[in-house]
Amino acid sequence: MIGLNADQNELAKFSELAHRWWDPLSEFKPLHEINPLRLDWIDQTAVLRDKTVLDVGCGGGILAESMAARDANVTGIDLSEKALSVARLHLYESGLTVDYRNVAVETLAKERPASFDIVTCMEMLEHVPDPASVIKACAALVKPGGQVFFSTLNRNAKAYALAVVAAEYVLNLLPRGTHDYEKFIKPAELVTWTRQAGLTSLELAGIQYNPISRQYSQSHDTSVNYMLRTYRPI
Fold first, then answer.
1. For 9-23, how does the pLDDT look when each residue is reduced to its tens digit (9 = 90+)?
2. Is 38 annotated as a binding residue?
3. Quick check: 119 and 56 in contact, CB under 8 A?
């Protein structure tokens, strides 16, 4: 994997937990809880039915499968073969169809430029050495007029307190060491990178978590978790 835009420690960390990906009470519980929110947001704004969709950094396939369940033609890519093996195995249980591939997004961008109606890259940018490179590849992969969705974590004191200290050390929502605060991304940085990649921003939405109801909701507060919807001009 020499030369790939990947952190080997990050890959090893998620590969080690891969067998627990579909356990809703495991370390991946937050992904299961946040998935309905991000799925509905994508479907309501881009309409998944009969669309060709690429899920970048798909992991064990939680989002990819849910988009396939809404009649999208989904391809999921990841650099963790263990996570992909879990994702493929889960298809036997769900009966859905997703094309999972162990390939870097930059490599796929050269193979299949302008091939997808929708590209999603959720909770992934903060785990790679060069997020701008991923964004550029996502922009190349989407068709003109298509949409690209991102979600990540803001970089400020509040985000550190809630996403790292509270989530990993107090509430134990995530394994300790899941996030590296230095890799968090400010919204202005993400918007700049998407613009440099030729994408136009359409919507910036915050995500809030209620620890009592354990539910996520969309908000105008982008100080911790947030999502960005963009499109590639025709």
1. 767 766 676 778 888
2. yes
3. yes
